[in-house]
């Protein structure tokens, strides 16, 4: 029989929440931990095959919380899909498994903004080496000239398996060779602290299987960690200014003698805070929610990475997966073979990614750049800080390619980093079951539009280089021309979210009026309540931030344990 009283309650089992719950439960004092997840505990029989990483959202809809944004004014008033993982492990169960940690200058900026060296590069390396990463590099000898991890900044015995593929597909080699000779730039270790250049990107995977936060931290959980799935927390219970527990949608209440930790993500965490009477007074008044604690920054400062796909038809195939994935019988047979002995097509396809982060110094000499605040301008000039990202080893997903699936295609994604557009998460009603309003305000800042043009032109120049163009027949989906207006028109029609929401319960110092948590993750003005997920980031780091979710969890676990068990 499930009890109602615990030492700590953690809400949400994504990378940060799973980590915090597991680490606290492993403390020698053996505190009683309750981890509550709104989603299911998924049967992973086929769900976690790495070769099928691109189809997780469509193949397993019961693992997904489907959101859409408000109409995006600067993207032709389009609604943008904004899906999140609703499953044990959170979005780590549906993402593309790319493990990138970003530039070292981002971490030092984070530490400076919040006044705490815990977030600096040096401490991030310590945590990854000692606790987080279990890095597996089993690449065969012929491919080792394309990836050489710097093990002085990586861990080998941590909780999260991170791997580089054993065998590489031909198209990956073509793209990396082209990066070397085209001037785009090449990187042997994209996670060394300097991410600039095209690289083979590690995956959160081992032996061809996705490794989720649930697998990394919750498998073989100790008996003092209770995991409750399919229970949506709808309210944080406050007594005065202290959080003492939570209530779930079915009515049950659970109490924490020490602390409640909210790790529901950058969309659901601010929603839960506001439903609990914690947020901006005017926002709560609009929905007739009793104000228990005025915290004006809740839901503000939403940041995300905007991205877009380009596609070209190839003259001849240099991949083997198109015919395979178009044959349902072959897919089923391959799944059986892979499950039996780890061999076959699914041990080879999409085991790696080619990805790179790049500068575009031309944007630093513009009126849009000069309009930025001084701290941001200084950061963009730093040695390791990118403006944009290119990912190439991706299955066809654009309208033109999907309309003619019998051909082979090169599909590339461009991502914008250091976004300057700021959005918000607000309530749609006082009902806890109603979705929140999510408005990222994509493309609203002129610097983002400037960077989209620069990034697109640089990406197209790379594809047109002879080393890449030799196997290109013609463009299928892309801008009508290279002129700025056509590039911007293409972005407005087709750009989408990368599903990297962050910063909606921002960390900061007492001087920051919109900061919601301090550098120890404690909600300002309240006791017994912390927020530990990507919503606390003071800015969105220049990477695929699942890695930051795990790091945030490890840092928070250390800080909480230090407060109670040092």
Could you characterize the architecture of this molecule?
The chain is an alpha/beta fold and 566 residues long. The chain folds into 2 domains: 5-43 and 214-302 and 503-565, FAD/NAD(P)-binding domain (3-Layer(bba) Sandwich); 100-202 and 306-418 and 443-494, Glucose Oxidase, domain 3. 29% of the residues lie in helices and 21% in strands. The chain is built from 17 helices and 25 strands. Strands 1, 2, 10, 11, 12, 13 and 25 form a 7-stranded mixed sheet that branches. Strands 7, 17, 18, 19, 20, 23 and 24 form a 7-stranded antiparallel sheet that branches. α4 crosses α17 (546-565) and α14 packs across α16. 53% of the residues are buried. The mean pLDDT is 93.
Secondary structure: elements and pairs:
Elements: E1 5-11, H1 15-25, E2 33-36, H2 56-59, E3 64-65, E4 84-85, H3 104-114, H4 121-132, E5 133-137, E6 160-164, H5 170-182, E7 197-201, E8 205-206, E9 209-210, H6 213-218, E10 225-228, E11 233-239, E12 242-248, E13 253-262, H7 265-275, E14 278-279, H8 281-286, E15 293-294, E16 300-302, E17 306-314, H9 321-325, H10 328-341, E18 353-358, H11 367-370, H12 374-380, E19 388-394, H13 399-403, E20 409-416, E21 423-426, E22 437-439, H14 446-464, H15 466-469, E23 472-477, H16 484-494, E24 496-497, E25 529-531, H17 546-565
Parallel strand pairs: 1-2, 1-13, 2-10, 5-6, 13-25, 14-15
Antiparallel strand pairs: 3-4, 7-18, 8-9, 11-12, 12-13, 16-21, 17-20, 17-23, 17-24, 18-19, 19-20, 21-22
Organism: Periconia macrospinosa
Pfam family, one: GMC_oxred_C
Cofactor: FAD
């Amino acid at each position: 029989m499930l009890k109602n009283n615990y030492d700590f309650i953690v809400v949400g089992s994504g990378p940060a929440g799973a980590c915090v719950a597991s680490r606290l439960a492993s403390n020698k004092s053996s505190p009683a931990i309750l981890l509550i997840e709104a989603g299911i505990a998924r049967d992973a029989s086929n769900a976690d095959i790495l070769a099928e990483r691109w189809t997780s959202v469509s193949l397993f809809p019961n693992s997904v919380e489907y959101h859409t944004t408000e109409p995006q004014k600067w993207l032709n008033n389009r609604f943008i899909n904004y899906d999140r993982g609703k499953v044990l492990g959170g979005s780590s169960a549906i993402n593309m498994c790319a493990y990138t940690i970003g530039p070292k200058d981002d971490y030092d900026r984070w530490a400076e903004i919040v006044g705490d060296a815990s977030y600096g590069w040096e401490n991030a390396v310590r945590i990854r080496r000692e606790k987080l990463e279990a890095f597996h590099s089993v690449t065969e000898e012929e491919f080792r000239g394309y990836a050489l991890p710097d093990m002085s900044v990586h861990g080998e015995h941590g909780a999260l398996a991170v791997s580089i593929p054993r065998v590489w597909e031909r198209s990956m080699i073509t793209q990396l060779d082209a990066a070397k000779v085209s001037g785009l730039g090449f990187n042997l270790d994209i996670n060394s602290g300097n991410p600039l250049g095209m690289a083979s990107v590690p995956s959160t995977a081992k032996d061809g299987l996705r490794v989720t936060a649930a697998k990394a931290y919750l498998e073989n959980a100790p008996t003092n960690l209770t995991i409750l799935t399919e229970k949506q927390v709808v309210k944080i219970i406050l007594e005065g200014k202290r959080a003492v527990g939570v209530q779930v949608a079915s009515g049950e209440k659970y109490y924490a003698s020490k602390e409640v930790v909210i790790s529901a993500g950058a969309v659901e965490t601010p929603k839960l805070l506001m439903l609990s009477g914690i947020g901006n007074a005017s926002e709560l008044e609009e929905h007739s929610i009793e104000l228990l604690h005025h915290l004006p920054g809740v839901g503000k400062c939403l940041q995300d990475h905007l991205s877009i796909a380009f596609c070209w038809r190839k003259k001849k195939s240099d991949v083997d997966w198109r015919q395979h994935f178009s044959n349902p019988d072959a897919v089923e047979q391959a799944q059986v073979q892979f499950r039996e002995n780890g061999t076959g097509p699914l041990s080879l396809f999409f085991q790696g990614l080619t990805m790179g982060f790049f500068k575009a110094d031309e944007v630093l000499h513009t009126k849009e750049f000069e309009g930025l605040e001084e701290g941001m301008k200084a950061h963009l000039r730093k040695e390791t800080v990118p403006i944009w990202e290119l990912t190439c080893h991706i299955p066809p997903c654009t309208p033109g390619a999907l309309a003619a699936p019998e051909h082979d295609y090169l599909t590339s994604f461009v991502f914008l980093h250091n976004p300057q557009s700021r959005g918000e998460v607000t309530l749609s009603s006082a009902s806890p079951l109603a979705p929140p309003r999510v408005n990222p305000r994509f493309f609203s800042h002129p610097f983002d539009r400037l960077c989209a043009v620069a990034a697109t032109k640089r990406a197209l120049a790379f594809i047109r280089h002879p080393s890449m163009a030799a196997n290109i027949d013609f463009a299928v989906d892309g801008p009508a021309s290279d002129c700025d207006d056509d590039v911007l028109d293409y972005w407005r029609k087709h750009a989408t979210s990368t599903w990297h929401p962050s910063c909606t319960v921002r960390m900061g110092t007492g001087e920051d009026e919109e900061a919601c948590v301090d550098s120890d993750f404690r909600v300002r003005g309240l006791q017994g309540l912390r927020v530990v997920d990507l919503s606390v980031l003071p800015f969105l780091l220049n990477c695929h931030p699942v890695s930051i979710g795990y790091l945030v969890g490890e840092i928070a676990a250390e800080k909480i344990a230090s407060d109670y068990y040092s």
